[in-house]
Amino acid sequence: MDESIEAEETVFDENRAFEEQNPAYFRTDLRISLKKNKPKSTRTWALDIQNATNRKNVYGSYYDPTEGEIMTSYLTPLIPILSYRVEF
Q1: Residue 2 reports pLDDT greater than 90
Q2: Phi/psi at 7 (nearest 5 deg)?
Q3: How many of the other CB atoms lie within 10 Å of CB of 44?
Q4: What distance in Å separates the CA atoms of residue 33 and residue 10, rounded to the nearest whole number?
Q5: How distant, in Å, are the alpha carbons of 39, 46, 53, 55 from that of 27?
Q6: Closest to 51 measured CA to CA, from 76, 83, 25
Q7: Cα separation of 57 and 28, whole Å?
């Protein structure tokens, strides 16, 4: 922490690499789709919901010089994706 404050950026202790671990990563994805088959083509409507439980998975930690403390960054929240596909 003292070295990070002095450098005003994150400084890692490489001698202690892999001693601490982030909490277990967990993400539930959900997909609902409707497929229509025709003689010359197939059409698909789909709704994908990534991270359906909206869990805050830890990406990492860093030193923030403006706050003067170690902050935690998180991965993406719930993301809905609507798609339409035509196959010939």
Answers
A1: no
A2: -80, -15
A3: 14
A4: 44
A5: 38, 19, 7, 7
A6: 76
A7: 12
Contacts of 35 (CB under 8 A, 6+ apart): 42, 43, 44
What pTM, to 2 d.p., does this model score? 0.67
CA angle 69, 71, 77 (to 5 degrees): 160
Radius of gyration for the chain, computed over Cα atoms and rounded to the nearest angstrom: 22
Asked whether the beta carbons of 22 and 56 are under 8 A apart, the reply is no
Distance CA 86, CA 44 (A): 7
Q: Which two tokens stand for residue 26?
A: 């967990």
Contact 41, 34 (CB under 8 A): no
- Contact indicator for 25, 50 with CB cutoff of 8 Å: no
Q: What is the pLDDT of residues 36-82, one digit of tens each?
A: 999 999 999 999 999 999 999 999 888 888 888 889 999 999 999 99
